[in-house]
Amino acid sequence: MCRPPRRRRPPTTMSSTLSPTDFDSLEIQGQYSDINNRWDLPDSDWDNDSSSARLFERSRIKALADEREAVQKKTFTKWVNSHLARVTCRVGDLYSDLRDGRNLLRLLEVLSGETLPKPTKGRMRIHCLENVDKALQFLKEQKVHLENMGSHDIVDGNHRLTLGLVWTIILRFQIQDISVETEDNKEKKSAKDALLLWCQMKTAGYPNVNVHNFTTSWRDGLAFNAIVHKHRPDLLDFESLRKCNAHYNLQNAFNLAEKELGLTKLLDPEDVNVDQPDEKSIITYVATYYHYFSKMKALAVEGKRIGKVLDHAMEAERLVEKYESLASELLQWIEQTIVTLNDRQLANSLSGVQNQLQSFNSYRTVEKPPKFTEKGNLEVLLFTIQSKLRANNQKVYTPREGRLISDINKAWERLEKAEHERELALRTELIRQEKLEQLAARFDRKAAMRETWLGENQRLVSQDNFGLELAAVEAAVRKHEAIETDIVAYSGRVQAVDAVAAELAAERYHDIKRIAARQDNVARLWDFLRQMVAARRERLLLNLELQKVFQDLLYLMDWMEEMKGRLQSHDLGKHLAGVEDLLQLHELVEADIAVQAERVRAVSASALRFCDPGKEYKPCDPQLVSERVASLEQSYEALCELAAARRARLEESRRLWRFLWEVGEAEAWVREQQHLLASAETGRDLTGVLRLLNKHTALRGEMSGRRGPLKLTLEQGQQLVAEGHPGASQAAARMAELQAQWERLEALAEERAQRLAQAASLYQFQADANDMEAWLVDALRLVSSPELGHDEFSTQALARQHRALEEEIRSHRPALDALREQAAALPPALSCTPEVQGRVPSLERHYEELQARAGERARALEAALALYTMLSEAGACGLWVEEKEQWLNGLALPERLEDLEVVQQRFETLEPEMNALAARISAVNDIAEQLLKANPPGKDSIVNTQKQLNHRWQQFRTLADGKKAALTSALSIQNYHLECTETQAWMREKTKVIESTQGLGNDLAGVLALQRKLAGTERDLEAIAARVGELTREANALAAGHPAQAPAIHARLGEVQAGWEDLRATMRRREESLGEARRLQDFLRSLDDFQAWLGRTQTSVASEEGPATLPEAEALLAQHAALRGEVERARGEYSRLRALGEEVTRDQADPQCLFLRQRLEALGTGWEELGRMWESRQGRLAQAHGFQGFLRDARQAEGVLSSQEYVLSHTEMPGTLQAADAAIKKLEDFMSTMDANGERIRGLLEAGRQLVSGGNIHAEKIQEKADSIERRYDEDSGYMGALVGK
Question: Per the record, where are the segments of Low complexity compositional bias (predicted)?
Fold first, then answer.
């Protein structure tokens, strides 16, 4: 048996499509999960309920689950062994014997009849996982859905998932293919439902047998006995069985099935005779009954078929004539009835519709049922005709167009649709007429009530009694509003009458004229009442409005008399605040007057409306109203004139007092600021002078802000003087004094700013110099430290600190330069002081000293860090070598293959570790060499450490290589023995397969069956031959390398070769015994091989792979041409097979020959299709080759253009005559090169246009690339012309 390579198959994934049994598999796996998950609850869930009843229930459920699992395990184990018996194999424990995957692969091979990948040799977990993976992958290819199941679950012996896997296999290979039609042939069921239907059909009519499930229906054993008795009544007396004796019934059925039918006894009576038998176990066992009796039934039916052919043919012809006649008559009746039912001329009265509905019910109960029976008889008759013809292998009768059952069914559906619509129309019309009668009665009641109410309210609103006082009129208004509210509320009831009448009219009520007349009467009464109410409301509102106008006139006259007394006062204020208060009071008075103006106009307009002679109704005398309005308007005009005169006097007084107040405020502020600016204080340090500068800047800003308001104040004073105001002299004197004080303030501010700026420059220089000096002292202290660290970590920390310090030193150089500039910018009086003159040179000397010491410390830290790094790495490498030497010295090679593979895995992990260590040792040697070049004080210590580390490393490498060679040798011998064992087992298996073909005949059917049996065997023999050759070469190599074990190696090889010779002899004997079938078998084998070659060649020719480069295109073209040669060489074989096939199938009518003839026709179609596919692919590859060639030339052209563009963009104009001559010569050479390249580019563009015009599949890309190159070439040419012109 060939040993497959050791590799892990990817985890099984969920298939995107579900097979017919996948839903059953999901359901079963879910049930297994539910059973097991009941006991996986957290402890808290169990502790929450401590009642004895609950605990008993839980224990009972767990016991039932365990019992069911045990029954399933026993049943599935027997089922698996019944199939593994064909390959002389069995399992003892289902959970443990399926863990290595070998038995699982054998089981799937037996069930499917296909050859699965060979199991991986070895007993390690990884080998078991790979074998189970192969089985799960095969199930996936068979469209079997496996949810939440992986190879590790089976290898770990998971009970639930192992049982679920076996059940899934049973569903796929035993139950999925079961299909049974119902007794009325209207539905076809499959899988589990089909099996249950089959059991129900077979047990129908047996007393006390009612199969409705796969659990309790089988508990008494009568169902099993009924199935056996149905097919083999000679084996048992069913009448003698009693329902109460379940154990005997079960035992009797199981024993008969095992002894008489050869069915394995998967169940025991005690497994079924329980309260709730296991469904899956019973399904598995019942499926064996189905498959056995289905085969028996097929053989029995075949014998009866021939004798009934002639009778069926004559009977079928008579039945066809009867069918044609009955179908025509039925279709004619259906069409006539549909026309009648589609008539929608219904009566428009309740009694008429009731009569039509009674006639329709008579049709449904009297006329239609016989026709429905006739339709069913027609379907039965056609089915009988077709069944008889099909059973007699005659052409199935198909009625002509228009007489098909589907046509009759469609016509009947149209009849039922018309009937249904007719019934709906009649019943809808009946309901409508009943509703209309009820609606008309309700309309009469509502109309009578509305007419009575409207008459009473018309009498009420016809009276006018409003009164002559405002209070009386307002009371009349409220009473009228109450009447209107009642009328508005009643409008909904009047509208309800209209709605009922409209609904009757919309529904075409037969007495609609009477309804419409009464509706018009109610509407007329309602409109008249609303007109009367509206007219009375207008009269009432006019009276109310007149009384309100008279009241407003009286109020306004009183208010105007009061305002005249206040406006005639002579008080104009004694100061600004007093004038402002008087103005505010006057504004309030004016606001009240303005507000009352609108009210006066409104009252006048309202009153004058009652003087209009055009109105018929006048609630008062118009002359009285006119007199009162004129008096009101005269009083309001006099009041407005008094208010304007008083405002003018108050405004003049406010202007004078405001000017005097603003001048006083400005003088006070100027005097205060003059006092502050006269101070000689400039601060004691930088902070003080900066504070004073900020204050002075704020003062200047405040002066700028006050300059504008001061100017406005002076302009106001000048305006008072120019206008000759009574206080003009006082205003002129105050203006002159204010201007003189402001000019003095500006002079003081300028002097103060100069003094503060000089002091700030001096203090800033001193502060910066002090900061620089303090930093230099701290930095010199740090770089002068002798500390270099005591190990690698501390030295690295010091080095990082020193690098930061060096960066800080470089960053302070600009600050020192800035100090020098500050000193030079000081005034001469300050720059000549001792603290300024010598300060900058001193700081520069300290800075140079700091730079020198920092460089010395950096070099010292680098040397110390390199030394510590080398010593640390050397120590770590030495520790690793010591640890691995101890492991290798104590390692003893085991004898078992599994243990050897574990050791090999450890060696495989050791090799990358050694590579990493070698790199580290090389780094240590590099560091040591660098240190030795600097001649450090500890030179001898460095040399000794380096030599010791290299010596130990060489010793360890020698030890590891020796151990690895010994391990490889032991592994090769163990693998050789294991491969010999598996090869021998493989050869024994193939010998049994060859011997199992002895019972096949020599006809075509037998040869086909033989071919199916031996096709896989021949391929396996080729693989076995190759494997034996490999074992021979391996044995010779091992014997040469291990002389001590050579006899055992050659002895094992001899056993393998002897088994191989026996297998070949068995195969030759079988081939010799075939006789005349040999020629047929050779033809079928050749046909299979040629069809396989044709499929592979079509797949290769149909490839959509496109070349990405020109070499790939040339390679694909060469490969395609070679494929054409191969096709031409196969043409003779094709002709030979067609001729031989015609000879074999000539004058043959059996199904196998017909199938072979179809294969030959498909072969011819495939051969012709291959030629067309080759031509199509040749055209695509030729276009792709042209495209890739164009791309190659385009890339070269783009490179040339890029070079030209670079030269043109970097060409500079010469500055001398000599340089100009050289440039002209160089430009001429470049132009010659461009012309030569231009020819190539134009040729490329022409080739691209030819490809585009030839309809190349990449025409768009070619055109785009050609346009890009042409554009760049034109740009270069234009730039070149411009350059030549320059």
Answer: 11-21
> Which is nearest to 76 in space by CA: 140, 32, 39?
32
Q: Which amino acid is at 1137?
A: L
User: Which residues, at least 6 apart from 64, have a Cβ–Cβ distance to it below 8 Å?
Assistant: 276
Q: Are 706 and 780 in contact (CB under 8 A)?
A: no
C-alpha 1154/C-alpha 1158 separation (Å) is 6
The answer to whether the CB of 58 falls within 8 A of the CB of 194 is: no
> What's the pLDDT tens digit per position in 606-651?
777 777 766 666 777 777 778 878 887 788 888 888 888 877 777 7
Q: Let me know: does 917 contact 880? Beta carbons within 8 Å.
A: yes
Structure tokens at 533: 């109410």
Find all residues with CB under 8 Å of 856, minimum gap 6, and list them.
783
| CB proximity list for 388: less than 8 A, separation 6 or greater | 312, 313, 315, 316, 319
CA dist., res. 1020 & res. 2, Å (int): 9
CA dist 1183 → 681, 1206, 1240 (Å): 97, 34, 22
pLDDT-based confidence at residue 671 (cuts at 50, 70, 90): confident
Helix (H) or strand (E) segment spanning residue 634: helix 622-677
Cβ neighbours of residue 346 under 8 Å, at least 6 residues apart? 352, 353, 356, 425, 426, 429
pLDDT at 250 over 50: yes
Q: Is residue 633 classed exposed, middle or buried when 0-12, 13-18 and 19+ CB atoms within 10 A define those classes?
A: exposed
CA gap 611, 629 in Å, rounded: 11
- What is the CA angle 848-854-857, rounded to 5? 145
Give the tens place of pLDDT for each residue, 342-369: 887 887 777 888 888 888 888 888 888 8
The alpha carbon of 1279 is separated from its chain's Cα centroid by a whole number of angstroms, namely 54
CB 379 within 8 A of CB 304: no
The answer to whether residues 229 and 205 touch, using CB atoms and an 8 Å cutoff, is: no
Q: What is the 3-state secondary structure (H, E, C) of 640-697?
A: HHHHHHHHHHHHHHHHHHHHHHHHHHHHHHHHHHHHHHCCCCCCCCHHHHHHHHHHHH
Answer for the pair 438, 449: CB distance below 8 angstroms, yes or no: no
1104-1133 tens-digit pLDDT? 777 878 888 888 888 888 888 888 888 888
Q: What is the three-class DSSP state of 188?
A: strand
Report d(CA 885, CA 958) in Å as an integer: 11
Residue 1133 CA to residue 1120 CA, distance in Å, equals: 20
Cβ atoms 589, 643 nearer than 8 A: yes
What is each CA distance from 1056 to 897, 1038, 1061, in whole angstroms?
A: 20, 16, 9
CB of 388 within 8 A of CB of 316?
yes
- At residue 180, φ and ψ (nearest 5 deg) are -140, 135
- 225, pLDDT greater than 90: yes
- Asked if 1206 and 1278 count as a contact pair (C-beta separation under 8 A), the reply is no
Task: Report the DSSP beta bridge partners of residue 179.
Answer: 190
Strands (E) across 1170-1286 are located at none
Q: Contacts by 247-250 with C-beta closer than 8 Å and gap 24+? A: 247/221, 247/273, 248/221, 249/220, 249/221, 249/222, 249/224, 249/225, 250/221, 250/224
Kindly tell me the burial class for residue 28, based on how many C-beta atoms sit within 10 Å of its own C-beta (0-12, 13-18, 19 or more).
Answer: buried
Distances (CA, A) of 28 to 24, 41, 801: 6, 21, 71
Cα 634 to Cα 113, 586, 603, 627, 649: the distances in Å are: 127, 22, 14, 11, 25
Contact 544, 383 (CB under 8 A): no
For residues 411-433, average pLDDT: 86
Rounded to the nearest angstrom, the gap between the alpha carbon of residue 622 and the centroid of all alpha carbons in its chain is 88
